[in-house]
């Protein structure tokens, strides 16, 4: 069990700020898997840069026992083909970026294979992205839910779409920044598709 470092949730295509935390606290990273699933968070949502501005991609989850489902037990809903919508959205937003084609074939299977659990899906995506940006990291997971940790930096509720982040971010080139200017703290895919192998240096 890690007794120093940082505690983070598992997000869907997490924002850039998330990866600056992973990079800062590695290798001492603990991933929360025992918490109850909170609504309206990046656990099942990612923000990307569309021609019209910020676009949220949300992974639908099966409406279960209200808020009392552990995050590791939350199932993905396939009532409509959200995977096709997300993949079309990523293509439409990043086809013109410098590195989309470089990563496209490795990303595509995540929008073809059906995963039962959101946690597993996010975990597989995170493992792939860590490999793509060349941050070697072994993920450790909580064994039980604890409301507070004395020795870990608890980041479970700090990165959220509900409030403006005070994360200071250096601008980089974005496909549509001539329309809406630089947008900060978008999904890591925005940085990856625009900066490619330079992503790790940026972080």
Can you tell me about this structure?
- This protein is an alpha/beta fold and 203 residues long.
- The protein contains seven helices and six strands.
- Strands 5-2-1-6 form a four-stranded parallel β-sheet, with helices on one face.
- Strand 1, helix 1 and strand 2 form a beta-alpha-beta unit.
- The longest helix has 15 residues.
- It starts with 5 loop residues before the first strand and ends with a helix.
- The model has no long low-confidence stretch (mean pLDDT 93).
Strand-helix topology:
Elements: E1 6-8, H1 16-25, E2 29-31, E3 45-50, E4 53-58, H2 82-94, H3 100-107, H4 118-132, E5 140-141, E6 153-154, H5 177-180, H6 188-195, H7 199-202
Parallel strand pairs: 1-2, 1-6, 2-5
Antiparallel strand pairs: 3-4
Q: Sheet with the most strands?
A: 4 strands, parallel
What is the C-alpha radius of gyration, as a whole number of Å?
16 Å
- The helix-strand sequence is EHEEEHHHEEHHH
* Structure summary, number of beta strands: 6
Name the descriptors.
203 residues; 4-stranded parallel beta sheet; 7 helices
Can you summarize this structure?
This protein has 7 helices and 6 strands.
